[in-house]
Amino acid sequence: MYKKLLSFVAGLCVSxxxxxxxxxxLDDGELSKVSGKDGIGIMMDLQLNMTSLTDTSAxxxxxxxxxxxxxxxxxxxxxxxxxxxFTSIGxxxxxxxxxxxDYVAVKLPSDSIFSNFGFESINxxxxxxxxxxxxxxxxxxKIDGKMSMTGELRLWSH
Length: 158
Description:
three-stranded antiparallel beta sheet, elongated
């Protein structure tokens, strides 16, 4: 407990010293020398419609509308999306090895954990409120388990 309190007080002192110097804008040259070291890490714990796991009367849906060339709108309807997903990604700015412009690297999640994650059914239909019998849908999805990936998605401008 004492060590935590001491660390907290030390952190406040360092923060107060930094604030006393004030903030100032950086020009492009100074900004190009800034390094985030490990970049930004984003963790997500998504709990989606968890009551529908035990409540069979739950009825939720997500509808995405797309207007065609004929002016009519058709919808992709996902019925009862639900489940839990725990994952993380990293974002960093890196230099290209070929001398090109810097790029944004989105690190793919090394581990993603799914628990009863998915949806009851998905369908394409002209009216998003129409109830479609399950045997006439495009099917459903349920994922349980762990997924591992390596690599990164690289984004840069021309």
